[in-house]
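Hey team,

Sharing the 15167_t:CDS:1 run so nobody has to redo it. Sequence (134 residues) first:
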Amino acid sequence: MSKFIAVLSGFIASGALLYHFQNEIEDNTSQIRLRLHNTRNQLEDSLPSNLKDSSVTDQNHLIHPSKRSNARPQLPIPSLTQTQNYINHRFIPTFKSTWNEHVTNLANKLTSFDVSESVKNAKSFVEDKWNNKK
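Structure output:
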């Protein structure tokens, strides 16, 4: 029964942590998007009138990001997709090839290991140490 309680409490604790971090990430993302929106508006307002694009005057961008009907991000975060691509296309293959190389080297060392020679070397080493103590 104690294992069940430990597993259950672990699930509850991990669920609470996941919920907390998910909300924290969503809040941080919305704050970042709000700052980007405000900075974009400031930059657009600072442009001279002859350089402003007609699409900039579109009223859709003037809506505050948090007042939109769907405040959740519409596009994936670029850094997250870049990280996912790095892991899938570079980290995993590199890790896999390094792992395979180390396993192959270990297997070669184990198959070429001479037990009788190692025992003789260990025996002579112990005898030399024993004779030097006397």
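Residues 78-134 form one domain.

Ping me if you want the raw files.
A.
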